[in-house]
From TrEMBL:
Chain residue ranges for the region called Disordered: 103-126, 221-240, 295-318
Transmembrane regions listed in the UniProt entry: none
EC number: 1.11.1.-
Similarity section: Belongs to the DyP-type peroxidase family.
Top enzyme category: oxidoreductase
Record domain Dyp-type peroxidase C-terminal: where: 232-407
Co-factor requirement: heme b
InterPro entries given in the database record: Dimeric_a/b-barrel, Dyp_perox_C, Dyp_perox_N, Dyp_peroxidase, EfeB/EfeN, TAT_signal
UniProt-listed PROSITE patterns: DYP_PEROXIDASE (PS51404), TAT (PS51318)
Task performed by this protein: Involved in the recovery of exogenous heme iron. Extracts iron from heme while preserving the protoporphyrin ring intact.
SUPFAM superfamilies: Dimeric alpha+beta barrel
Name of this protein: Deferrochelatase
Amino acid sequence: MNETTTASPSRRTLLGWGGAGLALGAAAAGGTAAALRLGDGSQPAASAGDAVPFHGAHQAGIATPVQDRLHFAAFDVTTTDRAALVALLKEWTAAAAAMTAGREVGDGESSDYADNAELPPDDTGEALGLKPSRLTLTFGVGPGLFEKDGKDRFGLKSRRPQALIDLPAFPGDNLDPARSGGDLCVQACADDPQVAVHAIRNLARIGMGRVAIRWSQLGFGKTSSTTPDAQTPRNMMGFKDGTRNIAGTETDRLDKHVWVSEKDGPDWLAGGSYLVARRIRMHIETWDRASLKDQEDTFGRTKAEGAPQGKQREHDEPNLKAMKDNAHVRLAHPDSNNGVTILRRGYSFTDGTDGLGRLDAGLFFIAYQRDVRDGFVPLQRRLAAKDALNEYIQHVGSAVFAVPPGVRDKDDWWGRALFA
Ligand SMILES: C=CC1=C(C)c2cc3[nH]c(cc4nc(cc5[nH]c(cc1n2)c(C)c5CCC(=O)O)C(CCC(=O)O)=C4C)c(C)c3C=C
Ligand SMILES: [Fe+2]
């Protein structure tokens, strides 16, 4: 698994080192960043400025510790040329490896480093001087890449995973097509919002003429944790969110519930996962008028401590029968769903106010799973039918992506096995 490295030179420092910086960058691209940067083989301790290695068996940004900020982008592929798409994915991979290591895209931002001062710089520059900030870039492919309007656009139709279904409609959905779907996605997570936004902006810029951003979502205040020792974050409803999630260290549970195995197929996806994203709007003003008792009954947990109802401490084992029949946690718990378990990695969002003066705020829900047909779909069917939380939320955006395994080394690239 990808580990966080402690040495965290800023982008400018790396440039300042000149040749040394370039040599370090090349080594990072070879997958030895952690060892080189530490130099002593010791285990790294994560902190907010660090770099998370880009190369590995699985993509970073799934089981790796959750960062503070999100910029998620879904892209439409606008080119019809398979070779142009492949070239883009190679360029994206090189740029992603550089940015996650805290380096600039291509030759950099300023004309000092560009080949030709008459051209725009390779990097837009706003992350210059900022630390890597644990930036992870996680890449996925949507159903439309395989087939759209009955057309096999890139000769990939036969390679579509059976589990990459078009999600069914759920009761209560009010999905906006302009905030749903996408042929490709990139999930950028970082501890500094400017680093995450810079990454998506530069990928979009590289993709000009071949892809176009369909929709994107900024997120803050992570609403999940893959590191159970850390304090559990709270969502916009004021409740601890992520108490019972799969931890990044639980390799058995990750293998069982998150990573696609070789026998699941298809081959190109082994070691990858499936991502479901849902933009879930909260009716904040209604929630804020609900009594504490109603709020706690809605989730089946206490607000202050986050303990399951009838228990004292946050991490006490829930007694589902102590919760109301329609409590969110009771309905979502694996014991109520034949063991169904997903890895949640969502973020809060606030996108100003709507035309009626209400906050446009909520949860940008992200879940990773080994098969959406045994993960998000049955869970959401149950929640959509019965969840007390439905009084206060509405799903307004939706997308599903297959997330390939990790990029192995500097010769590998996002989607290589798919296009092979
Ligand atoms: C389809 C899956 C889920 C959706 C959609 C969903 C939306 C949603 N959840 C919260 C807040 C909380 N969820 C909590 C637990 C929880 N939620 C899901 C699944 C979905 N949630 C699961 C599988 C679980 C874990 C159940 C368990 O094993 O006990 C909690 C409790 C704390 C925790 O365990 O994380 C909160 C709080 C909101 C606000 C929301 C939509 C806006
Ligand atoms: Fe939930």
